[in-house]
Amino acid sequence: MDWIPFVLVTFKVIVLATGMFFAIKWHYDQGKKEQVREKAAERRAVLRAGGKIAAVFMLSLLALGLATFVLGKMLGLDLSYP
What we know:
The protein is mainly alpha-helical.
């Protein structure tokens, strides 16, 4: 009868340690999954922002060329292509 508390306490410690190990492992794995999702979302956001910047740059370049052409015509410059 003296050995029962030792066996039961040992069993309890083993079960709790195993449960804590798997709980910590599960939370760690969930954090890694979330990191991967965040990294993919961040990459998409950067690509989308880069595309927007490129589009704005091209539109402003087109507008500047058009404004230059119109201003040159208004000033009477010969802008014909040889």
